[in-house]
Amino acid sequence: MGSELIYRGHESQPVSDPYSPKPDKPWASVVRPIRYMLREQRLVFVLVGIAIATLVFTVFPTSPAPRVPHHHFIDPIPDSIAYFPVETQNKFSHPHRLGLGSSNPAGKIPLGLKRKGLRIVVTGGAGFVGSHLVDRLIARGDSVIVVDNFFTGRKENVMHHFGNPNFELIRHDVVEPLLLEVDQIYHLACPASPTNVVGTLNMLGLAKRVGARFLLTSTSEVYGDPLQHPQKETYWGNVNPIGVRSCYDEGKRTAETLTMDYHRGAGVEVRIARIFNTYGPRMCIDDGRVVSNFVAQALRKEPLTVYGDGKQTRSFQYVSDLVEGLMRLMEGEHVGPFNLGNPGEFTMLELAEVVQETIDPNAKIEFRPNTEDDPHKRKPDISRAKEQLGWEPKVSLRKGLPLMVSDFRQRIFGDHKEGSNTNNGESST
């Protein structure tokens, strides 16, 4: 069957006329958009928008902001808000202390704006001085991390903060590195051994990494058996580097050296406090310090042991005065070192007599041979702390001692289990 498709190439194909569109009219480019807008009602929306904008700018006219000199710039906060004075704001003008991320020394803080709490680590915070410092920081609204290995500290000293979301307790020895994000470091952990230097190095390293301010609690022992009386911060001391007391003395002197080296070489913000003899509640009952020894002996009806002739002198400050000085030093702008102590000077015999008056007038005094390298005189010159920190002790020995006696009496007689634990004091002077 043949194909029905036949090629007819010889047949001619009709040719259609080529298409030629009509030329555009000259006004078509204008008429076409107008027709489109009228047909889609775009013009109505444009006119309505213009009318609304005109009404808004007519009813609510804008007024130019007053020009304020650059050096007097303040944040545009409504005038109806009350403000703190500039002096109060300047006290917390440093960014990492205010906790607001920036400072404005010339500005004012609204009265209703609460101070943002800082994140603070206190090494040795479960000890005698450390626990009282923690109490003050928590009461101020800060978040506090206590780092303690409980070598001399006690959980009982900080148990009342358990459950507080602003309180953390870490069992850790500062001779091992520690990574934390904090604003301030109070370094109180210091056993009388070379490890206090290693711990200081670790905490200075932490301060350098996170940009925290570091406060070292040094001691009046850096003056040794002083040849200058009273002792000023400019005095370099008289320390026997190989004596029986040298481990603690030289350890603190080295800690001060390291602290200043980190300050000068690495730009770490540091503060140095030289603490003189301190007493008060939560002090270790059997730590060998003269105040706790006399109080515990008098309560137990034992003789008060006086070493040597009893004419050597000491000054005694109540723990609340010390805590106030430490906080002022941390918040201040001066590196130090600063003597923090009570310039009231007592001989050991006078102290024994005050304890007798407070606890037991019939208590006996027993003399024993003096210890090696025992300082003959110890009295702080606190002129620098008065001038630069506005600090001086408020609690006298006769006012503070009964508070300590009450605490010791409860721990010795009221709770035998608690009183049997002798490692309950912070190792501070």
Question: Summed up, what is this model?
Answer:
Catalyzes the NAD-dependent decarboxylation of UDP-glucuronic acid to UDP-xylose. Necessary for the biosynthesis of the core tetrasaccharide in glycosaminoglycan biosynthesis. With 429 residues, this protein is α/β, with parallel strands linked by helices. Helix 7 (246-266) links the parallel strand 5 (213-219) and strand 6.
Name its key features.
elongated; EC 4.1.1.35; membrane; single chain; UXS-like; two-stranded parallel sheet; alpha/beta; 7-stranded parallel sheet; 36% helix; 13% strand; 13 helices; Rossmann fold; 429 residues
What does this structure look like?
Catalyzes the NAD-dependent decarboxylation of UDP-glucuronic acid to UDP-xylose. Necessary for the biosynthesis of the core tetrasaccharide in glycosaminoglycan biosynthesis. Pathway: Nucleotide-sugar biosynthesis; UDP-alpha-D-xylose biosynthesis; UDP-alpha-D-xylose from UDP-alpha-D-glucuronate: step 1/1. Its EC number is 4.1.1.35. The chain has 429 residues and is an alpha/beta fold. The chain has one domain: Rossmann fold. It contains 13 helices and 13 strands. The strands form four sheets. Strands 3-2-1-4-5-6-11 form a seven-stranded parallel β-sheet, sandwiched between helices. A two-stranded parallel sheet has the order 7-10. It has a two-stranded parallel sheet with strand order 8-13. Helix 5 packs across helix 9, helix 6 packs parallel to helix 7 and helix 8 packs parallel to helix 10. The termini are far apart. The N terminus and C terminus are likely disordered.
